[in-house]
Design brief:
Number of strands: 3
Largest sheet: 3 strands, mixed
Distance between the termini: 6 Å
Order of helices and strands: HEEEHHHH
Number of helices: 5
Shape: globular
Radius of gyration: 13 Å
Length: 108
């Protein structure tokens, strides 16, 4: 993984600035903006989101709502398998951002 991006991502995940969500990179739900761990990566990389249309609440970047665009994976040097593992940790196993950050720090 790109070391500079990793450092920014870890800081963002540990910052308490983001409310954790699931099923999408970034979404407004019940008046709160929520991110999955990969959405926080996008924020750390300075992504310019396309705002949600209508009442969906889903933000998109390069047409992606729930998965990382290839551009982000290439720049961050993250594989599709790694992205899927992190989605599983965030959405299915309900790991906190701090737990996910510890995993990233140790294994990526």
């Amino acid at each position: 993984m790109n070391k500079t991006i990793k450092k920014k991502w870890l800081a963002a995940l540990r910052s308490d600035k983001f409310t954790q969500g699931e099923g999408s990179l970034k979404r407004t739900q019940d008046g709160t903006v929520r991110h999955c761990c990969l959405g926080v990566l996008c924020e750390a990389m300075g992504v310019k989101w396309k705002k949600p249309v209508g009442s969906t609440g889903y933000y998109s970047y390069k047409g992606s709502v729930a998965t990382l665009p290839q551009k982000i994976m290439d720049e961050a040097k993250i594989s599709l398998d790694t992205a899927h593992k992190l989605i599983e940790m965030n959405d299915e196993k309900k790991r906190s951002f701090k737990q996910i950050a510890s995993y990233i720090e140790r294994y990526l």
